[in-house]
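Input/output pair, single chain:
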Amino acid sequence: MRLGLHVGYWGLGLTAEQQLEIVKEAESAGFDSVWAAEAYGSDTATVLAWLASQTERIKIGSSIFQMPARTPAMTAMTAATLDQLSNGRMLLGIGSSGPQVAEGWHGQPFGRQLQRTREYVEILRKALARERLEYEGELYQLPLPDGPGKALKLMIAPVQERMPIYIAAIGPKNTTLTGEIADGWLPTFFSPEHVAEFRTLLEEGAARAGNGNGKKIDESFDIAPNVNLCIDDDIDKARDEVRPLLALYVGGMGSRKKNFYNSLVQRYGFEDAAKEVQDLYLDGKKDEAAAALPAELIDRTSLVGPKERVKERLEVYREAGVGTLVATPTVFDPESRKRMIREIAEMV
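Output:
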């Protein structure tokens, strides 16, 4: 099992110099990759380019590039550029974001996400392979018909012959699609106790792929969950560090009618807690929402507590088939983050 570091959203709580020190610590400790996110603040590509310029070995991953923010061709251009700048270290993660961001921030319709993702990845593959971009789908047509558009091909070649494409998927149908068309899966709030359900969905998708013989979800397919990390001898203190972020997603990342993270927690068996956390959060009671999160839910979806306990949980993730565990330290103190990076690296 490889280790990744998630730096999250840039500019929140840490300076650029502090973030760079943390990433260099991860590279020195043997981490395989570093990942950056975007919502409606910092963008992922700029952060990855900056990190690539000041590191040597560690891979750089987009977790994620928001699909509604970029055309497939623009994502291919960005990924190819980053691959060249990093000398072949790019890991391309994409995701559909959510309806509030897609429609409210980017002005893009959110519907038909399964078909949109399928076509998006097909276009990405063609563009990165430097094929002339001719595509006729239900949602994308390249070039546009009856106009001056020309079928172009990418002017530059990625360093990697086949750049791995990861998809951030939460719902069952999106997870199945990921098994069919992607090289890796970026789950959030992944619970290794439920891996059998996830693997069934991934295998179902994989069986649809290929030339009729299908493909397998094996070590060549990277299950790369983003896992909150807080190593502390006081387990309740460690849990409390995770609570605000988990409450944000379960309670506030979406509406009462559509919140993918809330639905995921419900599928884990925490229906009542999910509803309570959402109601409290959307009523403006964020501290109460965080306090209402069950300790069992935090323990299943995070790495929290003393070193010995975290080490035991790492084995559970390994046995669940996780290829890359992408750790997100939840404390803002740079020295504490670097300490946790060193400690988890010694465990893996």
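The longest helix spans residues 235-252. The longest strand covers residues 90-95.
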